[in-house]
Each structure stands twice: as C-alpha cells, then as structure tokens.
Design brief:
The structure is a homodimer of 551-residue chains.
Chain A (H helix, E strand, L loop, with lengths): L4 H6 L14 E8 L6 H7 L7 E7 L11 E6 L7 H15 L4 E5 L3 H5 L3 E3 L2 H5 L20 H13 L2 E8 L1 H16 L5 E6 L17 H22 L3 E6 L6 H10 L3 E2 L2 H6 L4 H17 L5 E6 L2 H4 L1 H16 L1 H4 L4 H11 L2 H9 L2 H9 L14 H18 L9 E6 L1 H4 L5 H19 L5 E6 L9 E6 L4 E6 L2 E6 L9 H15 L15 H4 L4 H6 L5
Helix pairs in contact in A: 3-20, 8-9, 9-21, 11-18, 13-16, 15-16, 15-17
C-alpha cells in the first residue's frame, strides 16, 4: 500500500490509554440498573440482559495471567466515522495481550458480511496499515439492519464455524439497539456468544450520562470547521457573498452547533430550536433577512449561515406539507400521469389544503419540483435530497427584493452554497478520536474477557487527561426506552437531540446576536497531530461545555 | 481579535528566509533582457522599462546602513490566495529593517482603494494579527482592473499626498501585466513612483523559467487534496458511489493535476489534453463509461473523478456551441421572448446549425437551460456557472443505461457531486507558502530600495532548503508577448498552461491507467505545521517534478 507522507509518519502514533487499560485489569461491579424509561416493557423484552450492573475496570496488582484462547468477530455498521480502524486496532491489541493465540475476524461490508458469511481474519500485518487512519475500508461497512431471528441464526452458523465467542458491533444508536436484541437472543437460546456494542456516529446523537460522546464527532466537526473557517476568511476578504453551508445531521443539530461554536458564523440554525418554537419557513427566512439587512446598513453585504441537514423535517408546517404531498401523490397518481412537469406542479397545488398549497406555492420552483417528482422506492418525498441551502437562499433573495421595493433594504445579496458530509466522515482521526477509539476497542476486549454480553464499551471522563479516563461497560438496556418506529412501539436507545437548556446551546444563544451583527469569525485551521497539546489534543467544545469546562 | 488555538500558536511562527535576505543585501545586476516573444512590439509599448536586467540579491559584507526613510503602498488584487498576509508582513519587516521611519500604506479592497483613495497605514501592531494567516482581509481585495491613464493619475494623487515612492501590486498575470503598464506610465511622466509586482494565483498559471510558482497554489492544492483524500476513503469504505469533484482552474488544469498526483483518483480530466486531442464531450463521456464498466467487472461500483473548472471551454465542439448560442440568443431575442422555458429550449435547438443542435439536444435538460437562460450582463453564456460535474455524471448515467440495454455493462452507478474553490483560497498558508510569501515581500522591499521599477519579485530554487533560495527581480516585460484579448492585440504575461511534455503531466499519464483499473487512492491528510519536515515542508509535487526531483 503506497502511503502519503502523513500516513507514513502517523502510522507510528501510539494511542494513549487510560491507566486502567495499560496492564492487567480488575473489574469493579456496580449495582443493578434500570432502563431510562418504560422499565416494565424493556424488562419483558430483555429478560436475560435487563438490569445488569455497570462495570468499571481498575488497575490490577495481580500478575498478568494467560487466559484460555478465544476468537472474536467484529462488524462495522452504518456510515463511516473517523476512528473505526482504531477501535479494531485496540480490540486486536487487547485480545493479543490476553492471549497471543486469540484471533480476530472481520465481517465484510457491514452486517451483511455476518449474515452471508463473508469475512477475513485480521492479522497484525494487515491491521498495521490501518492504524490511526480514517475510513472503514479495513473491512468495509454497510447499512443492512441486523434485526431478524433468521439473520441471527444465519450469523450464528459462521460464529460457530469460526469458534467465535463474542461479536463486537461498532455502530450508531440503531446498530447498538440491534446489538442488545442480538445479545438477548443469543443468551436466550444459550448460544454461548457474547455481544458488545461500540458507540459510533459523527452526528453526535448517541450520547448520554454514560456515553459522553460517540466517536468520530470530534474529527468530523474539526474538518467541517476547518473548511467553514477558510470560507469565512474568503467571505471576509472578498466581502461580497453570503455563504450558505449545509452540514450533516438529519436527526440532530450537534454538528452544526459544534461548528458554530468553533467558527462563530453570522447565523447558525438549530433544528431543535425551530421545532421547540414551532417556527415556520417564513419566520426562518425573515430572521435571515433581518440579519442580512442589518449588516447591509453597516455596508456589509457578506456573511455565513450554517444549516443542519435535517432542518426541513423540524419545521412543523413543512412536515405537514410533505405528509400531505405523500398522500396526494399516492392517491392521485393517475390524474397526474403524463402531465408536463410545470402542469403537474400547478395541478398538485390545487389538490392541497389551502395552508399547504400556499406554502407549496411559496417554495422555489425547483424545490417544489424536487418535493413532487423525485420520490423514493416507496413513493415518498426524499427529504434528504432537498437542497435546503438553496431553498433558504432563494427565498431570502426573493424576500429581500420585496424589502428593497418597500424601501426596507438597500444592500446587495449574492449567495454561494456548500454541503459538507463526505469531506469529514473518513478523515484521519484527531488525537482525541484516535485515543478514544483505541481505548474503546481495548476496553471491548476486556469486557469480552469478563464474560459480559449486551454491554456497550464505555470510556468516560473524557475532558480529563487520557490516563484518567474511566473505562468500563454499560448495559445497553439501561439506555433504552420505547418509541414508535414505522408505526410500531420498539425498544430503542434514546436519541440525544441538542438540549436547549444545555451549556453548548446556551453559550451559542448568548453570543449569536453579536456574531450576527458583528463579524467575529474564528478560523480553527486544519487538524494538527504533532504540535502543542492545546492545538492537538483539545476535545470538542460541545464535550467541554457539557462537562462544565471552559471552551 | 478572538483567535482559535491554532491561530494563537501559529502567529508566533517566524518564516524562514533565504540567506541573501537575512541581512544587508548586495545587488548583482545581470545582462539586459528581451521579452519572450514579439520583442519589437513590446519594446515600443514599454520604451522606459523594456530590456532591463535580471537582478539577484547576495549577502553583503558591508555593515548595515540606515537609508533615507520612504513610504510604500500595497494593493491586493483579484482572488484570494494563501500567503498574501505574509507578503505584506515580509514587505513591512523589510521596510522597517531598512529604516524604522519607513511607512507602509495598504489600499483597501483592491485597486479600487488606490483609485478612490481608500487606504490605511499598516502598523506593527495591526499586522501582528495577520502573520501566517490565510485570506486577504488585512486590507481586502478586489477585481477592478487598473489599466486606464485616468486611474493611474487618480492613484498618483494619493501616492503624492502620502509621499509614497513605490507601489507593490500583489496579483495574478493580468494584475502583473497592469503593474508593468503602470510602471512604464509613471516612468514616462517622471512621476517618481516605482511599481513592483508579486506573483499570486492559486491556479498556478503564472509561472515560467523565473517564477517557479505563484504563491497560494501549494496551500490550496493541499486543502483540496485533503478533502479529496477524505472522500476517497469514504468512497473505498462504502463502495457505492462515484464522486465527481470539480476543482478551481478555469484557464489551466494545474490544480486538478497536482491534486491527482497527491491523491491518485480513478480519473482526472486535464483540459489541455482535451484541447490538444480535440476531444468531444461524447469521447470524454465514453472514456468515463469505459473506466466505470471495467471497474464494474471487478465488482467495483465506486470511484473518483477530478474535473478542472474550465473543462467545457477546452472542448472544441462545446466552444462552438456556446459561441453560436451567444449569437443566436442575441439576434433572435425577440422571437424567444415570452416563451415558456421548455418551448424556448425547443425553439433554440431549431435555430442552431445541425451539429450544434445535436450536441445541444444531447445535453441534460438543466444544463441546456443553464446555457440558454442564465446570461451575464453582456448577454453571454456564463460558462463558470455550468455544473460540469453534474453535466458529466448525468451523461455518463444515460450512456451506461444504453450500455446496460446492449448488454455491455451490468454494474450500478450512483453519483455524488462536489465543487471545491472557496474551501482552499483562504486557508492558512503551508510552511512552504508562509516562507515563500514572506521572502517575496521582504524581497520586494529590497527591490524598492534598489530603485527598481517594472520588476516582479522573484524567489527561486524553491525545491532546495529555504536558506538556499535565490532572491531577486525579473523585469515584467521579459515575460510578455502579444495576445488577442477582447478583439485587440495586447501585451500580456504568457499564461502557463499544463505542459503535456512536462514531468508532472507525464508522471500522471504514465500511471493513470493503473489508477483507473485498480484502487490506488492516497490520503494526504490535513496540512501540518509542527511535525517532521517531510510532512510539513514538502512543496507541491508539480514543483518537485518540474525541477527534476522525486515526488
């Protein structure tokens, strides 16, 4: 494998471990736990894995003993996140420390590799090339949902064939929910296979009291903040554009919020706030126009606006419109067939209830077209394809023209659009994520060796030095509640949305008016690996603020 | 000014200087020069500044003497490029070294600040915050062309008012051409004002035997390569998308070529090659489809394609079409008025000559619409707005469907689009660009102090250690020839296109088939400032290869 100069040097980096994981570990078992809500229902669904204790590892004074050898399988599930390769490296090193005979198998391209028996053995030589690198290309990832007994049984066959005693699933909230279901299933049938989850997602929505952050969030946000900072420098140099920047985060706005704290843009929209205040699309547009026209009064016809990818689905009126569109387009499909696009749009408008028709009419034509014509395989509007950044900038442009005609605005408005997603999901992990993921992997090996199942690998106290991090395991059922998904009540891990009472949002909210009216851009620059600790090792501002640190 | 952690640390960086510029300098005057072509015409146009000698600075053994104080003005012209702030810092430090009483004035928002007398004095305290940072926000930039005697006279007034004896213009080929014209003008009227140019452009098309690279190219390419590398990791992890990445570079493909050398994508299109081979749009699409279908045979339905921004204008048949569209739309404006967009497109097609009509019809509808409907203020097609990345991917998608029907292809094709420009133009300069620009600025001060005018600041031997760099000045007229611009023959600095016989292109061409059929992605990672020299100080591969170094 030909490598870049940075790849070559960076491959030598030895991730820093918590003290407890540096040698032989001793397990400390806490009291039994309860799920965060719906205790009775969760308990009924997980009779064998409910109520397990939180465990913590401590430095052991005992001499290292060689355990009987065992094999482990690992799956990367869902979207890429920086650090996945280090989870696997840490897991591998942990297994080898326990017994040199231990083997690690990787299932290829996500859960489907497990179900279809596509796998490879991960050797020291093979893993070497992937240490401290981004991406999930070491074994690939995939989005197949691991949730049916048929899948569990099919997977069990290959586990037995390879003599695997534990499966590690690296994934987001859904994958970890499924890991818990699988753990319960194997426990119930006495399969003799443990299941351990590892918290991954750059969206940052898998976190709670015990999982302080999911891995990859830190790195991805730093990449996005780097390019946002660069764009802001350009914006402040040329002084002639408004840059509308859409960022990943469909179900939560943690990324947008973190990037805002890192870069201090003129505007950052937070989906959770839009929902809480029941804001309409018009109100959002008006807020943007207010900021733009106030800046124009100072002669500033430039600025930056950060937008979370999922915004549209958090605007109650847009959600209503999309829902009615889904119905109308299904029911009236025949009437609409064969029409020219522009005729179709006019006809659809007439089919909608008056309030939705008005909103539909107010949208830029190409967005209305996108909503009506580009459907997924179930015939539904593809919300993820909506170009929210141009939706907003075009509506702002139109509104500003009206304001100009009314004598309320006399600036110039010209917009540039950006969407950052793939740019950050596979970046080489920051020192923080490299250390954190390596520890999560090593810790998973220790959880397996302790005979546990249905646990999530947990490394906490992350705002302190890595040697003081606390390593252990949290019963996944403890993080669950019952939620409606696709019409059915299901046990799931609670998604962590941006908490409007939390310090990260509060800090943002307390400063945003200044950022809007002044030009306070910060330029974080690229991720650094070799410089002073305050540049290289600082965790995300979200994490610092959530843990009462200065940021 | 609130700063990020990296900004704080990086502001302390002391750029490395060539030996010759570290103390008192001695000037070495070379033989008289000739322009690269059209000597007689250029000589006639520049009677006072033609034929000047190349000069070089050497270490002087003389003790430092304090010269009589003088004032200097500086202008940032055109698009942002990383390192502009260090040119100004180097210029400032050079002036202060010559005499603490020297003053530096910055004209605001580009040449217009010079013409309209908008300026500020640049003090040590003010400059401090901008050292080693990207952007042109220290005084702003602008695109006003400085080319008429009225502008020269208006500028002269403020120069006299501020007692400025030399003007430094930091810009691209056009701005440096204009600097030469201004130098000649002031010399001719005996204004007593020297003019010095500094070679800036991230596009990399201002370079020749004496100017090895324009500043900013190194940094911008490294930022683009970072995100392209990240996207390639993602591509190779998810294995389900083709990423079409458009990169800056309208008139030359140096950026695309450099990024290809840094990241080894599956395909990189080079405009200069397309022109040389007179390739049609269809041939380009067929080449892409060939690569995609061959990869599909291996089960690989993913890949990356780099596209230079200016590609469309290098395809002879597209150029013809655009030219005829410009005519037709001007002449037949009345006939087209009031028509619905789709009617208009149909009508335009009938107005074109058969070959252009066929090409027009083959384009995706939204591209045809863009070509026909979005016009600039002169009524011309706005080539820069054409979404070449989606033009290509849509035509590829269509062609692949046809191939599928014909049994020639059986893969899956799904595309993602990216365009990187603003992300890199204002990044913090790499060590290379930080050192290079600081030297260029310091060097400009020495050229001024030597009484020269009509020179470009030149720092050469850039692939060696910075202490061995050669500093001096090149008469701008020496780089000129006559070219047709807007219908008139004008003296201009020759633009450097990608040389198809040069080592950078040759290296690319010799490897691209392997890159296309295999998966050889490189992941350069983010720019590093503090690590080992091979990671932090390496110049661009283009520069290394052009100077017969390994890369």
């Amino acid at each position: 494998m030909k490598k870049s100069a940075l790849q070559r040097v960076r491959s030598e980096y030895q991730p820093k471990l918590p003290k407890a994981l540096q040698g032989t570990v001793k397990i400390k078992i806490g009291p039994a736990t309860e799920s965060v809500a719906d205790q009775e229902e969760i308990k009924k669904l997980f009779p064998h894995t409910y109520g397990l204790p939180i465990v913590e590892f401590e430095v052991s004074k005992e001499p290292e003993t060689v355990e009987a050898p065992f094999n482990v399988g690992v799956i990367l599930s869902g979207g890429q996140a920086p650090g996945g390769h280090n989870v696997i490296s840490g897991l591998f090193d942990g297994l080898k420390r326990l017994n040199k005979e231990n083997r690690l198998y990787g299932f290829l391209m996500g859960p489907s590799g497990f179900i279809n028996h596509e796998y490879m053995e991960l050797t020291a030589d093979y893993i070497k090339d992937y240490r401290n690198t981004g991406g999930f290309d070491i074994i690939g990832s995939g989005r197949t949902k691991l949730e049916t007994p048929e899948q569990f049984e099919s997977g069990l066959k290959i586990l037995k064939e390879l003599n695997i005693k534990a499966l590690v699933i690296i994934g987001g909230d859904d994958s970890n929910t499924n890991a818990a279901v699988l753990a319960e299933y194997y426990k119930n049938i006495g399969a003799g296979v443990q299941v351990i989850g590892v918290p991954k997602t750059i969206d940052g929505d898998l976190k709670n009291q015990w999982i302080e952050t999911s891995f990859g969030f830190d790195t991805a946000c730093k990449v996005y903040s780097e390019v946002i900072g660069n764009i802001q420098r350009d914006c402040n140099s040329a002084k002639k554009y408004y840059h509308f920047v859409k960022l990943m985060g469909r179900s939560a706005s943690h990324i947008a919020l973190e990037c805002a704290l890192e870069t201090q843009p003129n505007v950052c929209l937070i989906s959770e706030e839009v929902l809480a205040k029941k804001m309409t699309l018009d109100e959002i547009v008006n807020y943007l126009c207010f900021v733009i026209s106030e800046r124009a009064k100072k002669g500033w016809n430039f600025g930056t606006v950060l937008i979370p990818e999922g915004l549209v689905e958090f605007i109650p009126s847009m959600k209503d419109l999309i829902s009615e569109l889904n119905d109308v387009l299904a029911v009236k499909a025949e009437e609409l067939e064969g029409l020219q696009p522009h005729e179709k749009l006019d006809k659809i408008e007439k089919m909608l209830t008056p309030s939705n028709a008005a909103l539909y009419k107010s949208l830029p034509r190409h967005i209305a077209r996108q909503l009506s014509l580009d459907r997924d395989s179930h015939g539904n509007v593809q919300v993820s394809l909506i170009e929210t950044e141009s939706l907003l900038s075009e509506m702002v442009s139109k509104r500003l023209s009206e304001m100009k005609d009314a004598g309320e605005y006399s600036g110039k408005f010209s917009a540039q659009h950006h969407f950052f997603g793939y740019e950050g999901r596979c970046a080489d992990p920051t020192n923080f994520d490299a250390d954190y993921t390596y520890a999560l992997g090593m810790n998973a090996a220790m959880l397996i060796n302790s005979g546990l199942t249905g646990y999530m690998s947990s490394v906490r106290n992350l705002t302190e030095k890595s040697e003081d991090w606390i390593a252990g395991g949290i019963p996944i059922t403890m993080m669950m509640n019952m939620e409606k998904r696709h019409g059915h009540m299901k046990p799931v891990i609670q998604k962590a949305l941006v908490n409007l009472d939390g310090r990260p949002y509060q800090k943002f909210a307390s400063q945003r008016d200044t950022w809007a009216m002044e030009t306070c851009y910060l330029y974080p620059g690229p991720i650094q690996y070799f410089g002073p600790a305050e540049v290289c090792d600082r965790p995300s501002m979200t994490l610092l603020l959530e843990h009462d640190k200065d940021a």
